[in-house]
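Request: When convenient, would you put together a sequence paired with its structure tokens?
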Amino acid sequence: MVKNGEEIEEVLITPLARLLGEVGRSVAETQRTLDRNSIKTQLEIEEDEGLKDYDIQATWYHIPEVDLELKMSLTMKLEEERDSKNLVRGYKPVLNAAPLNASYNSLYSYDVRGSSSIKAKIVSIPASSKLREE
């Protein structure tokens, strides 16, 4: 796909931690957008001469949890760990995941029967009491 003269490639393989982190950030961003909309709506109600006397409150929406089930191809890769002198001091295992889609299947002739299933749940929790005290 080309956008504004730049070529954008579909990401096929990424570390699993990055993939799940991006899902979490997306959920948080969606919740912030919902919250901002509710705040904006409440301010509009309070500024409207015809509405502010009726004790109308904006509706607040909350994402209590998100369930994920991903069908993926998982591979383990060893990444070099280097010291300050750029010498290899060891290898760190990194779990990479590739979503099973038509591009991946055709590019690598992957048999989906060998796929892995990853289940994750993102659940909202109240802020810790220490955060609320500050």
The first strand starts at residue 2 and ends at 3. The two ends are 47 Å apart (CA to CA). The helical segments are 16-47, 102-108, 129-133. Residues 2-123 form one domain.
